[in-house]
Amino acid sequence: MYIPMLDSVVVGKAIAFYRKEKGISQEVLSGLADIGRSHLSAIERGERKPTLETLFRICCALDIKMSVVVQKIEQELDT
């Protein structure tokens, strides 16, 4: 039986893409999202998967809808 898995590297790359597009450092974003910088760094490297709450806080800090990030993740997974 096939069980699909969410690729944490793709999730991290999507978050990093929008962070860089906004010109925000990991230090600033982690502060705005109220998460540790090392935690954000691990998420962006694909070493950790963010919880839904963490993803929501990151998106709020980036001033983008969570659905935009999810769409980017889905696009990457489709390719």
How would you characterize the overall build of this protein?
- The protein has five helices and no strands.
- Helix 1 (8-21) packs across helix 5 (66-78) and helix 2 (26-33) packs across helix 3 (37-44).
- It is globular and about 40 Å long.
- Helices cover 68% and strands 0% of the residues.
- The chain has 79 residues and is mainly alpha-helical.
Rg over alpha carbons: 12 Å
For the biggest sheet, the summary is: none
Helix run count = 5
Give the quaternary arrangement of the chains.
single chain
Low-confidence stretches: none
- Which class of secondary structure composition applies to the elements? mainly alpha
Task: Tell the overall outline.
Answer: globular
User: What string gives the helices and strands in order?
Assistant: HHHHH
Question: What fraction, in percent, of the residue positions are helical?
Answer: 55-70%
Beta content comes to: under 5%
Nutshell version of this structure?
The protein has helices at 8-21, 26-33, 37-44, 52-62, 66-78. The chain has 5 helices and no strands.
Provide key terms for this protein.
single chain; mainly alpha; 5 helices; about 80 residues
Give the SSE map:
Layout: H1 8-21, H2 26-33, H3 37-44, H4 52-62, H5 66-78
Helix pairs in contact: 1-5, 2-3, 2-4
